[in-house]
Design a protein that fits this description.
Shape: globular
Number of strands: 11
CATH superfamily of one domain: Uracil-DNA glycosylase-like domain
Strand order of the largest sheet: 4-3-5-7-6
Order of helices and strands: HEEHEHEHEHHEEHHEEEEHH
Helix content: 25-40%
CATH class of one domain: Alpha Beta
Bound molecules: zinc ion
Structural class: alpha/beta
Radius of gyration: 18 Å
Amino acid sequence: MTRTPETRRALTRVLDTMGGDVEISWQPPEPMTKGQRIRRRFAVDEQIAREHTGAAVYPFWSDATEDNTVAILHSTSDGAKDGLYGSGQKAALTRQALKPQIPSSRVSELGVVSIKVDGSPTSDQCLTGRPLMLAALEAADTRFVLLHGAHALHSWRPDLTLKQYAGRVGLWNKRWWVVPVPQVDGITTRRSEWSMEDWLRMVGRFVDLASGPDPFHHIERSCVHRTGRSGSGLCDVGASHWDEDAVPYCDQHWQGDQEKKQEVARKKDREQRKLDRGVLFDD
Ligand SMILES: [Zn+2]
């Protein structure tokens, strides 16, 4: 997608063609110059070095001269070797699945949490790493983020599960279009509920979204409220309402938990305002 003045403006679309009455607003970040990208990425790398001495995993940035980039947000340190994303089998598989529409020079890879060399991140660490993770997403200078694994999904929406939303399109903080997918290395285990074909189809959805002309075209159309005793199924009734993250609900389930949704929205607004004030950057 080219960056015309049109796409720089806040885009709001009323989804009347879907029979809904909702406005979904997209405020894509201002595009950066090559110099800005380099400065911001350097600032993020420095911050990571300060905060995580000895156990840092640095982002693997796209080529700074490339526009129209995408980001992959990894859930754990598994994709990283020698302190850098973009190496390792998981990263190789994911990058391969994005080709040929999205070449590796246009891909930035980031981590969702502060990483310990030995062991999984705790939820405390998730919170600690969050401002830095958002700053890294900004520095990636992208509009499309592949959420790789459950931690990455929960960075966007803690109330959704992979079962509910894997392979579906959403909008994060009004600025990044996202598609959550399960961890590729989990797919190969026998207890995974998804096959490799499922996984490739989900990544394909992201490729279509990121390389197509109109992200609004990809918004989901059926309710993702969980049903059944164990929450194993989805409502799947045609959606009539979308929240500001473009997550779809039918009439009945939209009425359900408005208060909860509003609290999530308020928290995100506060977070984004803080980020907009430029906690890390002053260029
Ligand atoms: Zn429903």
